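Morning - thiamine diphosphate inputs below, output right after.
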Amino acid sequence: MEAMPALAGEIRDFLVASCSKTGGHLGPNLGVVELTMAAHRVFESPRDRILFDTGHQSYVHKILTGRADGFVGLRQRGGISGYPAQGESEHDVIENSHASTVLSYADGLAKAYRLRGEDRHVVAVVGDGALTGGMCWEALNNIAAGDLPVVIIVNDNGRSYAPTIGGLANHLATLRLNPSYEKVLDAVKEALGRTPLVGPPMYEVLHAIKRGMKDAVAPQAMFDDLGIKYVGPVDGHDIDAMMSALERAKRFGGPVIVHAVTRKGFGYRPAEGDEDDCLHSPPAFDPQTGLPLKSGGTRWTGVFADELVAVADERPDIVGITAAMAIPTGVNKLAAKYPERVYDVGIAEQHAATSAAGLAIGGLHPVVAVYATFLNRAFDQVLLDVAMHKLPVTFVLDRAGITGPDGPSHYGIWDLSVFSVVPGIRIAAPRDAATLREEFREAVAVEDGPTIVRFPTGAVPADIPALERVGGVDVLARDERKDILLVAVGAFGQLAMETAERLRGQGFGVTVVDPRWVTPVPGVLADMAAKHRLVVSVEDGVRSGGFGDSLARLLRDNGVNVPLRDFGVARDWHPYGTRQELLTDLGLNAQDLSRDITESVLRLTEGTEVRV
Ligand SMILES: Cc1ncc(C[n+]2csc(CCOP(=O)(O)OP(=O)(O)O)c2C)c(N)n1
């Protein structure tokens, strides 16, 4: 037991050293070192299940379950995942890294063990940020109704990326900031020490303390009102305190909330002192200073952030919404200038969409900025609450397409398929900074329905000027000979230009176009296609139901019988790695594309004179 604090220190040093090389979710993991150690001491993983909401804070769990060696390849191709991964360890079950799901998994798992007659505990670690997501409350409502042995560790560090917002967060903050907090801790400790019995009598003692200090312990009342037993607040960096709280929770046998107060980034000064997000997920950095090793060029997010402010300067009806990610989506810039015109709704994408609908009904034009992968959650809200009401809401999807080290759940590859079925929606995919500004302005000018503007992660490429604009479509390259019409979605404009260059070298005449607005597919593409021998589409999204499918439908509907090859991301679960590595694996590079397209053209010309 004496060795525990020393081990905690070693784990922290290891986390800093390893994340400084690979990048990763440093801040959250520094905050859960003792909490995770205590959970592993008190419960018997994998017999008892220890689950992590989102999973970004599972590094300590990985280290304790024999995977420290894998950290040299953390989040890199062929290395270990940044989230729990079934393939890595029998200690991992949940691979989902979208927030606020863990309590529902825990509810189901515990029910399954009960029905199968297995005596196993389920421990769910959930952050105060994740608790702002509605699913958590749906789950709590169900867990509270039963007597399943679910131990919920609320990892309360007061932060999502930025400080957690909302009523719940305010309650928790009141508790943390209240000078009587220390007294509460002492009183709880003392009461627990004096209580020989576990189970209900212990909680009666707690209850009495709670009543006595009602104002200071508002969250207890809140959790208690749900009907779930509550232990806490516990100092989440005190291993002994955490272990004794968890032991009591375990012995109780029914659902219990253990409220651990922790500090994000604990024990590493650059993380503790980082006001933005406590080094939530830095890229490789200098371990002495916490500063990133290389600073990239202008990013897509930055271009959007500046344009949002510029448009808001001109239009007082523009308001911004973020789901707990103001800095990563660039909405913080708008908030800095017009704080009253930005709403951080918590990790609540569904609520964000319908709240935006309300704002739009009220006469404003909301801009909801989220990562592409997270808007999937709000499909029904976009469909019915926004689109059916023909409301002017603009969704800005950052990190669209293949993203990289966060792996399969974080790829923004579904939006084109999922949202293109929504009646009346318009989706734009800019190819560079200039078109991002232009298409964003076009989007916020739409007044009779939702719009989406989607762009990838990373540095924005150099502008590709259009030769001309025909029927809303930008022509980027053309040729006297009309062999191939290459239709490039969004940021793949650059890729298409390189591919066309190679095809030209093979003797083919290539027209490259950027549709700009991909949903609905511009009708002029049917006319353009009819003039070529082969149509090729290339998109940074899943092929099934994507732009290529919509283009094929347009051609069919217009009786254009020119063959079409659609390139995009296979409908599959793709591993993590860098964006470039993954695109290469998917054959989405100029070399592979030009080879595949050449083969297609040659097949067309079989039996006729081949021109290469
Ligand atoms: C549905 C969804 N929206 C947004 C995110 C991005 N995200 C990852 S971690 C995080 C903050 C989580 O805060 P909390 O649960 O308190 O954990 P902490 O990082 O503070 O330990 C957010 C917003 C996500 N993973 N899932």
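Note: The chain has a mean pLDDT of 91.

O.
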